[in-house]
Amino acid sequence: MEGRFSVKIVDGPVVLRENGNATNGNLKSTSTTCLHPPTQSTPKRKKSLVQMTREALPRLENYRNSRRALKRPSLGELHGGEDNVKEANGTAENLEAQIPSGHGIKLGWIQGVLIPCLLNIWGVMLFLRLSWVVAQSGIWGTMLIIAISAIVCVITTLSLSAISTNGEVKGGGIYYIISRSLGPEFGASVGVVFAFANAVAASMNTIGFCNSLNDLLSSYDLKIIDGDLMDVRLVGCIALLVMVIICAVGMEWESKAQNFLIAIILGAIVDFIVGTSMGPQTQKSRAEGFNGFSYETFKNNFNPSYRKQDGIEYDFFQVFAIFFPSVTGIQAGANISGDLKDPASSIPKGTLLALLLSMISYALFVIFAGGAGMRDASGSVEDLLNGTLTDCVKDLSCHHGLFNSYSMMQLMSAWGPLIYAGCFAATLSTALTNLLSVPRLLQALGIDRIYPGLIFFSKGYGKTGEPYRGYVLTFFISCAFVLIADLNAIAPLISNFYLASYALINFCTFHAALIKPLGWRPTFKYYNTWLSLAGFFMCVVIMFLINWQSSLITFIVILALYLIVVYRKPDVNWGSSTQAQTYKTALTTTHRLINIGEHVKNYEPQILILCGSPHVRPPLLDFANMITKNNSLLIVGEILEKKLSYRARSSKRRSAYEWFRQNKIKAFYSVVDGITFEQGSNALIQASGIGRLAPNVLMMGYKNDWMISKPEDLTAYFNVLHSAFDNRLSVAILRVPDGLDYSRITEEEDATHSTDITYSQPPSRADLRPFAATRMMHADSNLNISHIDHSVSDSVQSITVLNGVNVNKKGSTSSAQLRSKKKTAIDKILFTSPTGKQLPASVLESMSMFRKKQGKGIIDVWWLYDDGGLTMLLPYIISCRQDWINCKLRVFALTSNQAEIETDKQHMADLLMKFRLKYYSLEMVQISDKPKASTIEFFDNLIEGFLVEDATAEEGKVTELELAALQEKTYRQLRLRELLLENSKDSNLIVMSLPMPRKGTVSAPLYMAWLEALTKDLPPYLLIRGNQQSVLTFYS
């Protein structure tokens, strides 16, 4: 050791050098040699938290829904054990990381929310329609319109602020907010409508810009084409193209343009206020309707004066519809939420301030326009001097005044050209904001893959992920509406779309605040649950008061988009309030069920089925699902003796529910591991379900290998029946000719036993030899594969794919030869199972026997003993299913003696009639006769291997004393077998009362021999025994 290590103490950690190489970490040795003994002056190295523990400190990065986010240690890593590997914590929420959040330039609340909102609100209506609204509704009517609009917008803003402060808001704006609050169904449908509304709003403001431009050119006797609609269409499309290019260049250019435009608008507002305060400067201005502030003018304009104009009879709500788009800019900040530095604080602050400033400005405009401008004026100075300035009203020939001229603001301003500039800035800025938001909204919809047609628009370009494809689509939509070239025709349509969006924003907040999931913790506290609900109803009522036809169309469109999402069932999980509502509703209903007494009329068979993994016994699960389908509870139980890790258990659970989804089965899955079959069955019987949603029927597959299974396995199977009856459950046992267990075919790749087997012929019904190393949960199978002829697969020379199924052929064969060998060749055609195994078509048919449509046939019901009616109810349910509706019920019942057959038959017919159960025929049978010798010999062969003389024999044996004591009951089962072979051998399904296994009286082998005698060599067979409680009633 000498000379190998050198230690250098510096102002920091100790550095060990081994043969000249630096070494990090602890030096482990059984003995210690100190070259330099430690002294009090030597600093002791302290370990960091990372070196002392695996625990992670609370950090923001641990909670991000991003692929680059840090992940805290899993419980498996901290706790250790077999599952001590890193567990995947990814969820569907990680998909939200794909939504571009604007990693380029980030905007503050002034630049990103306040200014865009003001630019959106101060739009085309401010300069081109507000004076006309005053003329129609008067000063107080217009103030009322503004007040109602303000109330709607303030309530919506409060709701919007609450939602936007309840977590991080990403790109997508209104769509993102609604979809993450109410779910993809509402969010996607409203998102599409909102995107469309914004695109149309861009065209409306562009039309306003073109109209203002035409007025300006006409004042100089200029025009481009006709000075009217054609000019609007041409200039409008060119202006849209320029604005789309500006938006596509990036946020920086758009922000600079907005600053310039807001400055012009503010200048125009000041120009109007100053000019109106100064009053008219010329007689010409007076003649055109600007006579300055006066009490008389204010009085004349105070009350409404609705008129018919352009063929439309205007009223309060018609005028409201024209005005309302001017206050729809409150969502401008939320639309570009992904480009904000802090959306949670910026959106409420900027939106509320913008709403306050805009409403004050609108109120000032109404007072100034109504107090200084006349409703009608001829424009003639001579009429002004003669006092006949308003006589043109009589013949509706006035061309000036608030009613007739959309250019009154230019007339009343101090400098007219600045008003034109303000109008241009207001219309273009609002259009610019709308054009900016639509592509990002489409991109968010495409990224979430809600609608297939919008996935194309999810692609982003450049570092900031600019949605260029969305810009192209937005341009064409807006350009199409610009071709309409009529401002008053487009405005009501936009009002409906925006009101619908605002209604759902308010409903989102109301719903989340009412349900109050634990994730609902908005930092914005100035909202109210019921105020949001009032805002929702207010928006809906106003929509229908404006125009009920267009409102109805709007809701139909939203409903259609909603149903598309419901039908597609997108695989997203955003923690919406509808999910919380579903949970609370289910919990509340379950609690309510506890306090509701059971009634025979409301009985539903709630089945616990012990079938293992869902894919292992498809016929058994299909049969149970046929009974409970969409009407009652179905729990699939799996019991494993091997202890599973958490990851393995989670994997099995996911696989089970995926199998349910693919096969359209409504069921729950429960797995217990590290426990024996009998113990696991008892646990499931006693603990499955909650409250009234608990199983009342135990369904199992028939144990085909009972004759050669281990005694303890047979006893366990038998004891499960006793456990079910002890817990007052009904019991159903299903047997099918080719067995139920298809684990060798359908098991997953991670199964523990081999599956490398090829089938060339159907399994024998009579062969009961088990699979090698048969497990407890596979004990009810008689599907034998040990006799398979492997020569078929060895002789395969070519593989042809037909309809997606691999079919192996042995070269070409003539048509005549194929026809002659059709019967023998059908079982040599090999199909490919879901796991890639090759098997004959007959096996696939057996696996799906309860999924196919049944032709005309018979369901035989052997209702031998009164168990409460379940033996009769289950076949009736099956006969009502679509696949079995062509099968008729044939009922067999017991009679006490031959002399009373007709009387007993009439009694049974009356009973079935009172139960309102349709049946095809009713037969009475007697089982008191002694069975045939051949039948007795058949039974003796069954129990030959179990029969012993000693009464103290080992478990799983039948003593001669027991056999003698139960001889009469045995003969009854054998006589029933003879009747079954005589009457029901060709039935589609047999349902019979299950013999009661009385505790301490009958042994497991003898009981299974009875069941074997009843079911062997017969069609699909269901043995059922109710819990002796009535499930049928003839009372109303």
Q: In what range is the share of β-strand residues?
A: 5-15%
Give the biggest beta sheet: 10 strands, mixed
Overall body shape: elongated
In DSSP terms, counting alpha (H) and pi (I) runs of 4 or more, how many helices?
Answer: 37
SS elements, strand count: 21
Give the strand order, joined by hyphens, for the main sheet: 8-7-6-9-10-21-20-15-16-17
Low-confidence stretches: 1-39, 85-97, 99-103, 748-816
Report the helical percentage: 40-55%
What is the structural class?
alpha/beta
Radius of gyration in whole Å, from Cα?
A: 41 Å
Average pLDDT metric: 79
Distance between the termini: 98 Å
Describe this entry's structure for a reader.
The chain has 1036 residues and is of the alpha/beta class. Helix content is 49%, strand content 9%. The chain is built from 37 helices and 21 strands. The chain has a 10-stranded mixed sheet with strand order 8-7-6-9-10-21-20-15-16-17, with helices on both faces. Strands 1-2-3 form a 3-stranded antiparallel sheet, with no helix packed on it. Strands 4-5 form a two-stranded antiparallel ribbon. The model is unreliable at 1-39, 85-97, 99-103 and 748-816 (pLDDT under 50).
